[in-house]
Amino acid sequence: MKFLLEVTMDDAALTEDPAGELGRILRYWGGNLRHYALRPGDGSVVYDSEYREVGRWSVTDQAE
């Protein structure tokens, strides 16, 4: 099983303060994971601090 997080870095908030914005995304979504079973197929869209879609996380059954 594999957990994947993909974030597009060319979003306005991410170009202005990449470390700060990625940190916020990781804190928010890390805390939100308790609401998921974390089984293959689980996932969600990831938003920046201005609620724009910038990526997604997912759980797969492939261990690449």
Structure, described:
The protein is an alpha+beta fold. The chain is 31% helix and 30% strand. The longest helix is centred in the middle third of the chain and has 15 residues, at 18-32. The N and C termini lie close together (9 Å). The model has no long low-confidence stretch (mean pLDDT 90).
Give the overall silhouette.
elongated
Percent in strands: 25-35%
Determine the fraction of residues in helical runs and give it as a percent range: 25-40%
Biggest sheet record: 3 strands, antiparallel
Broad structural category: alpha+beta
Mean pLDDT comes to 90
Oligomer: single chain
Radius of gyration: 12 Å
Which residues form runs of ≥5 with pLDDT under 50? Answer: none
Topology:
Blueprint: E1 2-7, H1 12-16, H2 18-32, E2 43-47, E3 53-60
Antiparallel strand pairs: 1-3, 2-3
How do you describe this structure in short?
31% of the residues lie in helices and 30% in strands. With 64 residues, it is α+β, with helices and mostly antiparallel strands.
Features:
alpha+beta; three-stranded antiparallel β-sheet; 31% helix
